[in-house]
Amino acid sequence: MAWLEVLRAGARTTVQDRGRPGHAALGVGISGAADVVAHDGANRLVGNDPGAATLEVTLGGLRVRAHGSATIAVTGAPTPLLVNGAPRPRYSTLHVRDGDEVALGVAPTGLRAYLAVRGGIDVSPVLGSRSTDTLSGIGPDPLRDGDRLPVGCPSADLPAEDLIPPPAPATDPVELRIRMGPRDDWFTPASHSALVERTWTVSTDTDRVGARLDGPGPLHRGRQGELPSEGMVRGALQVPPNGMPVLFLADHPVTGGYPVIAVVLEDDIPAAAQLRPGCRIRFRRVQ
Q: Domain 174-285 falls in which CATH fold?
């Protein structure tokens, strides 16, 4: 059986699949790939089921050696992709041989790239998923230099297509659609307007749990008091006492006690997952 030897893990490389839904009552979030569209695309190119585990590589810096022949694909952030030092195309099916080295450089834009291998990364599942939940610590540990990653058995034929078009480059600012609520009534009308009229910037405080946003001024509450803890979802814009919203991502907590003024549409979460510090955001309200 083929396996991958991790020569250089990079800063924040984790194993991710489509997550572990259904365990919120136990305090366990869904987790899974932050950019599920890129994750699914990489699996599609190597003939995997969308639920197969890939490697989520933050900013780049991963280098692995194939032991046994393998079929791979890289999607997501436009990180330079090298096989044995030679540039190779992203969003394409690639065949590597025993001993070949695959390296992902530093992405000039975007944040997360996905490396899929035919058969999937076959680490042991926890609660039905191979995803690393960085908030709870459930799932496999983040990758370290020297790790050995087993590769599973292929479950389907290779697709007829050996490349798919990458997404269009992100706009500046990135537009994310939102629906107001469920606690927008806790905020002043002026704050409702400010949320969609201002340009927000992703701060350096961003990870798989969420991204803190900076803006020209805080959002103000129209009512005071304590909000009982309630369920949280991916894409929630929670507003802590300092008035600067936090955009929850894949490893968000399952409950929270600060009001959520709006929620980013599910279809826009992959774009949100590619926002790196310094990226600008405009929110567009939809019904």
A: Cyclophilin (2.40.100)
